[in-house]
Write a structure and sequence with these properties.
The chain is an alpha+beta fold and about 120 residues long. The protein is built from 2 helices and 4 strands; from the N terminus they run βαβββα. It has one domain: 2-Layer Sandwich (Double Stranded RNA Binding Domain), CATH 3.30.160.
Length: about 120
């Protein structure tokens, strides 16, 4: 059995939607499968005047991502938030992986010269 990161979802001043909660938990489980360094997801959904605001915070080993989005609907706000979190996690992950390769390529002491 694969252990997933805990997902904490807050519905501020809103009725809780079990269907939306399940969708968010599935997406977070998918993100955890792809980015193993993540240890916790915290999602907050609330109404904001003409629309909805979704705030997210993801923590883990060397990872601390916080972001927010606004949308006219509750489900689109949650979807946009998770897309944005995925982009941030991908950027951090790629910097961690490919940064070492780029630095190794730039280091002149490690280059092999042909004589």
């Amino acid at each position: 059995m694969v252990q997933t990161a805990p997902v904490v979802i807050h519905f501020r001043d809103l009725d809780e939607s079990h269907q939306l909660r399940e969708v968010i938990e599935k997406r977070c489980a998918h993100l955890h499968d792809e980015f193993h360094e993540v240890s916790r997801f915290e999602i907050t959904l609330k109404e904001d005047g003409a629309g909805f605001v979704a705030q997210g915070h993801v923590t883990g080993k060397g990872t601390d991502v916080g972001t927010h989005v606004a949308a006219r609907g509750l489900a689109p706000a949650a979807d946009q938030l998770l897309d944005k979190i995925e982009r941030h996690l991908r950027r951090i992950h790629d910097k961690r992986i490919f940064g070492q390769r780029r630095n190794a390529r730039r280091d002149p002491s490690k280059k092999v010269t042909q004589e």
